Amino acid sequence: MPTASAESELRAMLPAGSAEEECVSGAQLVAEALKAQNIEYMFGIVGIPVIEIAFAAQAIGIKYIGMRNEQAACYAASAVGYLTGRPGVCLVVSGPGLIHALGGMANANMNCWPVIVVGGSSDRNQEIMGAFQEFPQVEACRLYSKFSARPSNLEAIPAVIEKAVRCSIYGRPGACYVDIPGDFVNLQVNKSSVKYVKCCLPPPISTAERSAVSEAASILTHSRQPLLIIGKGAAYSHAENSIRKLVDQCGLPFLPTPMGKGVVPDNHPNCVAAARSRALQHADVIILFGARLNWILHFGLPPRFRPDVKIIQVDICAEELGNNVRPAAILLGDINAVTEQLLEQLVLMEWKYPSNSKWWKGLREKMKSNEEVSKALALQKSLPMNYYTVFHHVRELLPRDCILVSEGANTMDIGRTMLPNYHPRHRLDAGTFGTMGVGLGFAIAAAMVAKDQTPEQRVICVEGDSAFGFSGMEVETICRYNLPVVIIIVNNNGIYNGLDADAWKEMLKSGQPAMCAPPISLLPNSHYEQIMSAFGGKGYFVKTPEDLQNALKASLAEKQVPSLINVMINPKSDRKEQDFHWLTRSNM
Question: Its pathway (predicted)?
Answer without folding.
Answer: Lipid metabolism; fatty acid metabolism
